[in-house]
Design brief:
Elements (H helix, E strand, L loop, with lengths): L4 E6 L4 E5 L11 H5 L2 E9 L2 E3 L1 H14 L7 H14 L5 E9 L9 E8 L2 H9 L1 E7 L6 H4 L13 H12 L4 E5 L12 E6 L2 E5 L9 H9 L6 E5 L3 H5 L3 E6 L3 E8 L2 E2 L4 H11 L1
Parallel strand pairs: 7-8, 7-13, 10-11
Antiparallel strand pairs: 1-2, 1-6, 3-4, 3-5, 5-6, 9-10, 9-12, 12-13, 13-14
């Protein structure tokens, strides 16, 4: 069995040290477990290469600004992530989650750590098998992020209870995955993934202005898509757009690119040849 590795990070001192993942490291009154008050990222390490680190740091910095947390030190976090990878058992695919908590309220000191573990087997398998999806309304319209920044839409926070509840709902109703929609009918994102659809030679994804995360894997895919003759577009997508697309995928750092087989029980087209090409672009 592959064991995870842990690095605790002292943000104030700019240092880090390895820690025993089986021993207590976090105070029970830390605001991460008490309130979910913090931010995080998860990077994929494949073949010893950390993928998309700069994009993840850019998103972590956006989340920090949204949450009124200090600007993360990219150099410190790169070294901490590398140390977690080096301490990990040999593995084809590793996921490193690096986390910043607001810490213990009484002290004002942030808590931070990087935790490395093997990529889940089911996430790797889904790249071939695909997923069945249900659409669930998130309860906000597509302009909510602009009107109500305190909702933290578009920030990658530790508060994932709603996302996990939606995933459980999908599984209870015979599906594998959720794609959220806005109350005015716009396609948003999956609980832990970005939605991308193909229409001819164009890849489309929902506009981040709708209050969704900037997808780091989607950003890398869009950056490299012209290499294989594809154009890219940020757009307002609807359920009908997905049902009539030439292919639909959900993308994340851990899962990479996963084809969607059906939406609300209706089969959608798969383009496995193009999917393999896109996976190759992602490395």
């Amino acid at each position: 069995m592959v064991s995870p590795s842990l690095v605790m990070v002292d943000l104030a001192a700019g240092t880090f040290h390895p820690a025993d993942v089986t021993e207590p490291q976090l105070r029970v009154d830390d605001l991460a477990p008490v309130r979910g008050d913090g931010i995080f990222e998860a990077v994929s390490v494949r073949g010893g290469v950390i993928h998309g680190f700069d994009d993840h740091m850019a998103r972590l910095a956006r989340s920090a600004r949204t949450m009124d947390l200090p600007e993360p030190d990219a150099g410190l976090w790169r070294r901490a992530v590398e140390a977690a990878v080096e301490a990990h058992d040999a593995c084809d695919e590793i996921v490193v989650r690096f986390i910043i908590s607001r810490g213990v309220e009484a002290t004002g000191a942030l808590t931070a750590w990087a935790l490395a573990g093997p990529a889940p087997e089911h996430a790797i398998a889904e790249r071939e098998t695909g997923v069945d999806v249900v659409l669930l309304e998130r309860g906000y319209d597509s302009d909510a992020a602009q009107r109500a920044p305190w909702l933290l839409l578009g920030a990658k926070t530790l508060s994932y209870a709603v996302n996990m509840a939606a995933t459980r709902y999908a599984k209870d109703h015979g599906a594998d995955e959720v794609i959220f929609t806005s109350s005015d009918g716009a396609i948003l994102e999956a609980p832990t993934s970005t939605v991308v659809a193909a229409r001819g030679d164009t890849l489309l994804t929902p506009d981040p202005d709708f209050g969704i995360l900037f997808g780091t894997t989607q950003i890398e895919l869009f950056r490299r898509a012209p290499e294989v003759g594809l154009t890219v577009e940020y757009a307002r997508l609807t359920e009908e757009d997905l049902l009539t697309a030439d292919a639909v995928w959900v993308l994340s750092s851990v899962r990479l690119l996963v084809p969607v087989n059906s939406i609300n029980g209706t089969p959608v087209k798969r383009d496995d040849d193009r999917g393999r090409t896109l996976l190759e672009l992602l490395g």
